[in-house]
Amino acid sequence: MERMERTKPEETAPADVEPQARSDGAVTSTSRAAPASAVRAMNTFSEADLEKQRGVRRMKLTATGLLLFVAVVYVLAKWADNSGAGPWAGYVAAAAEAGMVGAMADWFAVTALFRHPLGLPIPHTAIIPTKKDQLGVSLGEFVGENFLSEDVVRQRLRAVGIGSRLGVWLADPEHADRVTAELSAALRGALTVLRDSDVQAVVGEAITRRADAQEIAPGIGKMLDKVVADGGHRRVVDLVVARAHDWLVLHDEQVMDAVQGGAPGWTPRFVDKKVGERVYKELLRFVTEMRDMPSHPARGALDRFLTDFASDLQSDTDTRARVERLKGEVLGRGEVQDLIASAWTAVRSMIVSAAEDERSELRLRVRASLLSLGARMAVDPKVQAKVDGWVEGAAVYVVTTYRREITSLITDTVAGWDAEHTTRKIEAHIGRDLQFIRINGTVVGSLAGLLIYTVSRALGA
Description:
Elements: E1 18-21, E2 27-30, H1 36-43, H2 47-82, H3 87-114, H4 127-130, H5 132-146, H6 150-160, H7 162-170, H8 173-193, H9 196-213, H10 217-230, H11 234-250, H12 252-261, H13 269-292, H14 297-315, H15 317-332, H16 334-356, H17 361-379, H18 381-415, H19 419-460
Antiparallel strand pairs: 1-2
Helix pairs in contact: 2-3, 2-19, 3-19, 5-18, 6-18, 7-17, 7-18, 8-16, 8-17, 9-16, 10-14, 11-13, 12-13, 14-15, 17-18
């Protein structure tokens, strides 16, 4: 009645399978994508699975033994009844007969789940091996409709209270340190994976494209106009004039030689020398006065020049066009592109160093921000609601966008299982409990038979 089968742990089936009709109506498998780990787990029997199989066999023997017991009782009761042992024999025989019927019916029902009873291709038997793929599709649809719906996801996440829990967790300094360390490691890893040449090219292209797309002259003009109005350029003028004075003092001979060298050849040398000395003294006096007199006329003239230039940068078409041409020439130079590209290397080194140093300003600020955020999230309902809304929105987006992919993971995985191995493994896990159905059927059938026989005798009497 029961075919005892032993499955070896090393038995496996192809990793990728797809439903295919068999001549007997069953569904076998051919190539189809399925997670290899899930296929291996389902098609391989562990020691725990083998132990469960042994438990199923013991329960099968118990249920079958009970069936044989009631069969023997039935035979003996019928013999006793025919021998005139008394009315009790009829009651016992009726109970035993009904118990056998119940046991046989439940044996058929339990066996039909996993295989054809007695090997006969009876319709609607061997349900699990023949309907495995349909069960996988139904399971995927059930999960998609009842677990991956927007309402279910929102209700479950709202009940969890992620915002408040995350806030309490982040407010713990140890947890903030852990998150900071993980973020630093992730940042270092990302910067290590990125190739400098690729990032440099992207940065250079982005800066150049942004500069080409936007005219800079009006912005420079507004900034220069603001600087002049606030007197911010005066310190620069002070610095330039002071350095010019110091340079003239140190290079007096060179200045006079330059003036003398530009004199006509027909002038006497002493005249050239006097002219050179005079020019140098006047130039030094002019620079000295400009340095020491904030109200010097030259400073006022420079203020007016800068004001007019700032206005031209904003409104004069020719000036703006010349600035744009100059911008294009400067950006097109290789030295400028190299400078833009090298900025990434400097920034990356700075970030990596800061991420590796536990006492760096970057990590300390990140840690402080996490602690502050956690403290606010733990007590502020508005922040909690905002975080919960973000999490719910992200989860709903993933569920609604990738529901088909998620449910197909279930259907494809089930389709990738070998039908015979799947049947044996499912039977190993639930077969022991199913054998109690056979036992209960025997007992309940016996009691029902006894009751029916009793009622019949009573009515017949």
